[in-house]
Design a protein that fits this description.
single chain; alpha+beta
Length: 754
Amino acid sequence: MMKKKVLSLMLAAVTALSMVACGANSESNSSSSNSTSSSSDTPLVIAWDAMSQKFSPFFAESHSDMWIEEWLVGLDLTRTTRSGQYILEGIDGYTEEYNGTEYTYYTPSNIEIVENSDGSVDYNITLRDDIVFSDGEPLTIDDLIFTMYVLADPTYDGGSAFASLPIEGIDDYRNGVSTMSVLIAEAGPSNTDFTYWTEEQQTAFWDAVANEGAAFAQGIVDYCAENGYVDSADDVAGAAKAWGFELADGATAEDFFKAIGEQYGWNFTSMDAEAATVTLADTMPADVLAMSTTGVETGDSADSISGIKKTGDYSMTLSLTEFNAPAIARLAFTIAPLHYYGDSSQYDYDNNKFGFPKNDLSIVRDKTTAPLGAGPYVFKEYSNKVAYLEANENYFLGTPSISEIQFKETQEADKVPALIQGTADIAEPSFSKNTAEQIAAENSNGEVSGDTIYTQLTDYNGYGYIGMCSKNVKVGDDASSEASKNLRKGLATIIAAYRDVVIDSYYGDAAEVINYPISNSSWAAPQKSDPDYEVAFSKDVDGNPIYTDGMSDEERYAAAEEAALGFFEAAGFTVEDGKVTAAPSGAKLSYEAIIPGSGSGDHPSFGILTGAQESLANIGIELTINDLSDSSVLWDKLSAQEAEIWCAAWGAEADPDMYQVYHSEGGSAYQYAIYSDELDALIEDARASADQSYRKAVYKECLDFIVDYAVEIPIYQRQNAVTYAAGKFDEESIVKDPSPYYDFFAELYTLKMK
């Protein structure tokens, strides 16, 4: 028998948009089946961001849709504590101290992580046997297995990364399958082999490309012409270039659509991200639209995933071929009801039937706008820009105190006024210096928490940054050369010098400047008390400090300019009389910085760019600021690797794993284009360990590497604000000690209104 070792592992998490905090109650909760007091009939109104009505546990995309489904309607397999620990023993309750108070958390599962001697890892999962969905149907292990198979299906195109885990047998299950749209597109309109599709289907596909597809692309061209990106609506190639696509002169709208299709793997839902005027979801014939999510087996493919093993009515084992640190975060998904999202008659575990036809998720997609789950609330409807939820009397932790919640779409500028005017009870406004002043003015004590508005602040799970694509900001042909790094360090030194003043002006106490490309809320983030902590881009080309204590702002800017000249000279630029006069091959004297400031400078980093623009001009470098009125242009330029410098923010992932952004094979690696074997090895090393201290040390090496590569300038960590209409709530029922991993949503079901 193979020797096993049970890992005593409580992996911490950095919250992602797709992950929710634990729905358990506070220290007063001593039972896993507490019932709350009688429900209040007064609806709770939450001023909310615009919703896209994709409230699906599988296909929700926006924050506003995800939060409703994941926190309130659905029930996750595992969640996190206030400190960011994933809960592995939630059935009987897991107790942990936070800020001096003990809190107990409950989840529907216990998860035992067992490392085998051959390096494989088993996740032995046990579910509670007394949970039912809001419609009264029992929640069993079959619901969990059904959910896993949806997430692992070859045609699944939602946001979950479950299928990226090294699950035993998952490649055998997913191999040999492609979507019909990809196969028809690759075969071309002249194809005569109809082994995998009919001639009628092929004709319908190419007719749609020539008609609805071309109209979709022409809508982009028309938009570009109307907004001055091209001179004429006939300039398809010019519009395509502005949109991030390279087409030959004389290209047609149909050619443009084909280029978009190739970039998005002919997934029509994904292609709608490029929409300017019309969407494919609204115009494409339904049978053709379905082709991009219809799987076709063209080779050998297994009927099941060997690593998903049912062991009982309420138990299973998920087997991974190797240890993967982010795996526990990938399991923090909603357990979806098989009988609702799938077809119970098509579920037969012993005969490899899992609730839907493999390669066809149409019955799952049909429920995208109407979720059902085992969470504290029941989704009733979305109407007139309001989502209506009602208390779930079957919720396993007790019937919620508030019987109805209304999520009302509200413009950002109207969120605080809605609290003041009484049209909303809770809001999450973007918390800037102006917002803080607006709130303080309404409270008699002049603070952000007072008799009119009560405010809770936590760190936001993410951070603002200014990025550079090394492919476009380099010397010669090697983006990794010391010369290329010195070019980017010269630019970064100037930009970083303006962070403190500008961020303080924009956010006040609501944000702080950060020095590493990681959210401060992560356990892996370096701390100022660490002996090797450094301020980003604060040393010159010889490694000497640029700044001294007591320097004025103007003196700091002058010191940064002098240091930047040293970096430029080391990069091969010609420097004469305190100015750069010539650039080496592959480099330039002018670079563009893109910022999505609505065309009016409405962005926290806008002042940084304008200050850097002046300083760079002083030493002979031009920085052109492109303030976009349409932020989608930035994402298009990033995906096409056309951006040089840009301003944006990262949302934190469910684990500080850096694979997605910085590893050469990560989905967002194209943005910085680092492509380093050394960095890849470090990232792989960190995600292969269960030792958090070791992972943190390796991540510090990764962070130092990224800063030295000078493609990302850390800017700010802001605070997130939850504001309540003071006097409307029982204060004792408002969540205590909220954190980036556990906020007011976690205890909405125990919140009480007066």
